From TrEMBL:
Family named by the database record: Belongs to the cation transport ATPase (P-type) (TC 3.A.3) family. Type IB subfamily.
Protein name: Heavy-metal transporting P-type ATPase
Gene Ontology cellular component list: plasma membrane
Location in the cell: Cell membrane
Highest taxon listed in the record's lineage: Bacteria
Residues of the full protein shown: 388 to 672 of 721
Alphabetically ordered keywords of this record: ATP-binding, Cadmium, Cell membrane, Magnesium, Membrane, Metal-binding, Nucleotide-binding, Phosphoprotein, Translocase, Transmembrane, Transmembrane helix, Zinc
Molecular function GO labels: ATP binding; ATP hydrolysis activity; metal ion binding; P-type cadmium transporter activity; P-type zinc transporter activity
Length: 285
């Protein structure tokens, strides 16, 4: 009965804990691992710069990017579609492929378009400059030629600062961030939030093996939580001792895989959940 009280009480405060086991695990929380985009940052990108190359115009770079992103739900895609003001003829999109952790490949009007990160262009053996922008860089190539890049920026959630302060106050020993984004972007976020460590340029499967590694390093009884939001995050959410999903913007797959669901995308609710778990345990004992 006490445990159910805990679960019900937590849902009123905006967290849903899916079982007594996780209440117990939360009381022994040692390490918290966060995804970056959409978890610690708002996941709402804005185009801040377009840099054409090889004779392409800014307008063309944006157009090809928008065509490639037209059918993607990724936050990056939304920002590019917002910045592009022209029309896209959906009938001319002959092929479309979203490669997780890389970006998009599409064929439009007979032209082969790639839009994604450095890894995607390497995979396609497309010669390009190495671009470091103020934010996340999206490279665009048309028929194997580098056409330019778009810089997009995201913001850290104010609540993320609170989350990290409160978790440390509650005795969490280690806080980390795993991201598929570039090292330079990850470094900025990690230092602003004073995280203990971060790992960048990870594919979804790399996130799983990193979390497995971290779990092996835990002292006896100590638990690890992973907090994420994307479809990509479902495997790692499943693997962690306590898998936490953002319920607001989060994908259905992530929410379903999660042991703890944060209803309003505020990462500090994980600290709330730890508080609830400890309180509930006191009542039971
Ligand atoms: P995160 O781990 O930060 O949540 P993802 O795993 O969703 O990020 O994506 C990792 C990286 O893959 C992005 O930073 C981006 O460089 C690239 N990427 C993924 N999807 C897209 C897309 N639709 N368009 C362009 N780039 C993408
Ligand atoms: Mg994400």
């Amino acid at each position: 009965l006490g445990y159910f009280g805990g679960i019900g009480g937590s849902s009123k405060s905006g967290v849903l804990i899916k079982g007594a086991n996780y209440l117990e695990a939360l009381t022994n929380l040692h390490t918290v691992v966060f995804d970056k985009t959409g978890t610690l940052t708002k996941g709402v990108f804005r185009v801040t710069d377009v840099k054409p190359s090889n004779g392409f115009t800014k307008q063309e770079v944006l157009k090809y990017a928008a065509i490639a992103e037209a059918n993607s739900n990724h936050p990056i895609a939304k920002s590019i579609l917002e910045a592009y003001e022209g029309n896209i003829d959906q009938d001319k999109i002959e092929k479309y492929e979203e490669i997780s952790g890389h970006g998009i490949k599409a064929v439009y009007d007979g032209k082969e378009i790639s839009a994604g990160n450095d890894r995607l262009l390497h995979r396609e053996s497309i010669v390009h400059e190495n671009c470091v922008g103020e934010g996340t860089v999206v490279y665009i190539a048309v028929d194997g030629t580098f056409a330019g890049y778009i810089t997009i920026a995201d913001e850290i959630k104010e609540d993320a600062v609170k989350a990290l302060t409160e978790l440390k106050k509650l005795g969490v020993k280690r806080t980390l961030m795993l991201t598929g984004d570039d090292h330079s972007v990850a470094k900025k976020v990690a230092s602003k939030l004073s995280l203990d460590a971060f790992f960048a340029n990870l594919l979804p499967e790399d996130k799983v093996s990193k979390v497995e590694e971290l779990m092996k390093e835990l002292p006896a009884k100590a638990k690890l939580a992973f907090v994420g939001d994307g479809i990509n995050d479902a495997p790692v959410i499943t693997r962690a001792d306590v898998g936490v999903a953002m319920g607001g913007l989060g994908s259905d797959a992530a929410i379903e895989a999660a042991d703890v669901v944060i209803m309003d995308d505020a990462p500090s609710k994980l600290a709330t959940a730890v508080g609830v778990a400890r309180h509930t345990r006191k009542i039971i004992i």
